[in-house]
Amino acid sequence: xxxxxxxxxxxxxxxxxVEATAAxxxxxxQRCWMRAQRHADWIADGVRVRVTxxxxxxxxxxxxxxxxxxxxxxxxxxxxxxxxxxxxxxESCSSKVRFMLVFVAD
Length: 106
Hints:
This protein is an alpha+beta fold. The protein has 3 helices and 3 strands; from the N terminus they run ααββαβ.
């Protein structure tokens, strides 16, 4: 689901932990997708969403969603992602990350 690309390697667990955190929150992300589908037929076939976020001491802050500004999908994903927390072993990590979320129609 997520393919994180950290700009540095100062946090050795960061890539795996971002991926695990996205997987752990898959149900919330899926609800965003389902809500957005009901309100926008332009996403009926599926979309790829690139997310950029700051990780500050293990917490996700300031997520941005490329190409979907102002949409229900963007608003819902931003609200969901800002609450994510990395596992305890990455609490000291601070970095910017980019990852892709891929949504496919049923």
